[in-house]
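Form 7-S
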Amino acid sequence: MKPILKPLNEYVYALLRIFAGAMFMLHGSQKILGWPPGEKGMARPLLTSIAGMGGVIELVCGAALLIGLLTTFAAFIASGEMAVGYWMFHATRGFIPNVNKGEMAVLYCFIFLYIAANGAGRWSIDHAIWGRKATATVTATT
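Output:
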């Protein structure tokens, strides 16, 4: 069966990068700036706590992914942070992500790893400067 959205592949991939970056940036903003307010809505010491360091990585890498700047590097760092976060804070309560509340860490880790492997794609500063396209492709078998 032929994927019906294949002609839109580049644009859907760009939206994945943009929205994943925006959501990741909000996690960092919540941790270090206290905005948006919520359960984790308290500012933390930036470089003297694990949560503060994570917040800085999330805010900076999320913003870089959102605009598509140094995307491969930012996505690789973000993926690593999520892997570390999962093993340090979630896996200690059991291995299964939906039991230890680590689903978001696992999904972010692999989404960012995918982005790191494929580059920024359309609608990115990387594309505007270097003309790089994402290498992600959709293939159909008949």
